[in-house]
Structures are given as C-alpha cells and as structure tokens.
Write a structure and sequence with these properties.
- By secondary structure, the protein is of the alpha+beta class.
- The protein contains 3 helices and 10 strands, in the order βααβββββββββα.
- The longest helix is centred in the N-terminal third of the chain and has 22 residues.
- This is Bacterial Pleckstrin homology domain-containing protein.
- Pfam families: bPH_5.
- Keywords: Membrane, Transmembrane, Transmembrane helix.
Length: 182
C-alpha cells in the first residue's frame, strides 16, 4: 500500500495571532516610549533597531514551522510531522482496542498537562508533552474537539487531530488486522 496523506483538522484562524500579537506589541513598545519621551524612536545603534528586525525574522521562522504539519499512513506505520518534530509509529505498537476519539471539553482528563519539548499556542499543540497521569505523549492537536488518542504498548500515547478521526481509527484497525502475526 503506498503512503496516503491524512488531512488534519484546520486550526483556528486566530492561532497565529497568539504568535504575532505579542511580538508586534513588544516591537512597538520601545519606540513609543522613546517618542513620548521626546527622543527619536529609532537611532543608529543596533540595540535600537535590532529588535525591529530580529524579532519579526524569528517569528516568521516560527510561523513557517507552525505551517509544517502532516500525517501519512502506509501499511505498517503512521508518520507524523509537525513544526520541529516528527515521529513514526508502527501500527503494531498501537493499542487500538483502547484508542478513542475525545473532545477535551467533555473529557479534560485526556488533555496534555505539561509541555516538555513542544510548540504550543491556544488550540494548537505539537511535540512532546506529559499527560495528566504522568505518561508521555506526542501531540499534533489542531482542534480540541476531535482528538484521536492512540495509546502505545510502551505506555505512552499519540494524540492527533485528523479531519475525520473515526475514519482514521477504523483504517488503523483494518491495517492492524492485515499485519502478519509474529
């Protein structure tokens, strides 16, 4: 079976405001303070104009990382890529009998509790997290209302927001049934 791309749920349109809003605010504060103090808002010193250049470049890089997210499924594994993180999960490592689709509003116990190495904004999580029970989780969550929770045999879990989580779960179960038994 060739790898097929699995569409992800679209994140909220305002997600990037949580990234760009604070940066633009920080960029504007010092020049405004200088202006109200009767001084020129920007001088020739790098300390004056450097942040006006560096912060938007860093934020643009983070925006590009935010836009990198995809799921691919082949006959043996699920490949997840998001922001600066990626993971390949063999279907045989999944405990599909315990997998479920959840809404964090209705089931807050499944919500990641602590970011250990990840990228997080309201409504978007990518990377490595600790779950409320202390276990590890790898997340690519773009919609808190449709999250596919895939427990793994090693005690960790994978949390994803595909456009159609139930269809992905059924496809994973179908592929697991076709795997050769060891």
């Amino acid at each position: 079976m060739p790898a097929q791309s699995i569409p992800l749920a679209a994140p909220a349109a305002t997600s990037l405001l949580w990234l760009w809003g604070p940066v633009l605010l920080v960029i504007c504060i010092n020049p405004l303070i200088q202006l109200f103090a009767g001084k020129p808002p920007v001088t020739a010193a790098f300390a004056s104009w450097g942040p006006l250049l560096v912060l938007p470049l860093i934020t643009a890089g983070l925006t590009l990382a935010y836009r990198r997210r995809h799921l691919q499924l082949d006959a043996r594994r699920l490949k997840i890529a998001s922001t600066l993180y990626s993971k390949q999960v063999p279907i045989s490592a999944m405990r599909l009998d315990r997998a479920r689709v959840v809404d964090f509003d209705e089931n807050p116990g499944f919500k990641p509790a602590l970011k250990t190495n990840g990228f997080q904004m309201p409504g978007f999580r990518a990377g490595h997290f600790r779950m409320k029970d202390g276990s590890k989780g790898f997340c690519l969550i773009t919609d808190n209302h449709r999250v596919l929770v895939l427990p793994l045999r090693d005690g960790s879990s994978v949390l994803l927001s595909p456009e159609q989580p139930r269809a992905l779960l059924e496809e994973l179960k179908r592929l697991a049934d076709n795997l050769p038994r060891a």
